[in-house]
Amino acid sequence: ILNVEQSPQSLHVQEGDSTNFTCSFPSSNFYALHWYRWETAKSPEALFVMTLNGDEKKKGRISATLNTKEGYSYLYIKGSQPEDSATYLCAFRRAGGSYIPTFGRGTSLIVHP
Amino acid sequence: DAGVTQSPTHLIKTRGQHVTLRCSPISGHKSVSWYQQVLGQGPQFIFQYYEKEERGRGNFPDRFSARQFPNYSSELNVNALLLGDSALYLCASSLNRGMGQPQHFGDGTRLSIL
After folding, report:
1. CA distance to B1, B31, B49, B59, B69, per residue, from B54 (Å)
2. Is A98 close to B42, i.e. CB distance below 8 A?
3. What's the mean pLDDT in B25-48?
4. Residues of A in contact with B33 (CB under 8 A)
5. How many CB pairs below 8 Å do chains A and B form together?
6. Tens digits of per-residue pLDDT, A11-65?
7. Do A44 and B105 meet the contact criterion of CB atoms below 8 Å apart?
């Protein structure tokens, strides 16, 4: 059983704050790491697919980094807005076999106006 | 363009019954995956189908089965329903099975077992 851990479990910030959270995954047999944003009453939305050690991806105020050797990825949100409130999920895909994705439990972010 | 569509949106069944959930992928997407999401947990992978063949199976009992049709839509079937099968069932599609392919999710089917 693969262990994909996300921390913190939940986070409350004020509008304008910058924040970051972590996804930890096994450091061996890395294939890909996916980040998703899941807003209440909507479907999960793909943010980033990260495949190479040292990858850095950016989409507007959100960015992510990847360290496959130590098994972690950070997601950063600069200048949080209330519309950023959502659960942020990461999914690790291991090389070999069927490349089945294993999701973490997510980080719930609430941005207060 | 239409996104991933799932039906029904909500379903109530009793223990021992059978259920069929349906998913239509984004036009042009050939890969469909199914997930089960229980409150407080991340989505758990159930199946992946690509070009109408099963390409991956998660740790679920044989009561769970699926198939993909020539138009790439998919059905998830669950037999002999148990209380523990109550969950949100998500379908996701992608162009293919490639490494860089993001998955596009539907809104899910909320299944409640009484």
Report:
1. 27, 10, 5, 14, 12
2. no
3. 94
4. 101
5. 58
6. 999 999 999 999 999 988 888 999 999 999 899 999 999 998 999 999 999 999 9
7. yes
pLDDT of residue B98: 65
Of B42, B48, B56, the CB nearest to A105: B42
Pair of tokens at residue A91: 């999914």
Inter-chain CB proximity B48 and A51 less than 8 Å: no
Cα angle vertex A65, ends A60, A70, to 5°?
A: 165
Q: Do residues B93 and B1 make contact, with C-beta atoms less than 8 angstroms apart? A: no
Query: Is the C-alpha dihedral spanning B95, B74, A105, A28 positive or negative?
Result: negative
Q: What are the tokens at B62?
A: 């044989």
Q: How far apart are CA B26 and CA B46, in angstroms?
A: 20
- Residue A102: is its pLDDT beyond 80? yes
For range A85-95, the mean pLDDT: 93
Task: Report the pLDDT value the prediction gives residue B99, as an integer from 0 to 100.
Answer: 60
- Number of residues in chain A: 113
State how far the Cα of A9 lies from the Cα of B56, in Å rounded to an integer: 29
Torsion sign across C-alpha atoms A36, A38, A39, A43: positive
Mean pLDDT for all residues in chain A: 93
B50-62 pLDDT tens trace: 999 998 899 999 9
Specify the 3-state DSSP secondary structure of A82: helix
CA distances from A100 to A7, A12, A32, B11 (A): 22, 32, 10, 27
Distance from CA of A63 to the nearest CA of B (A): 16
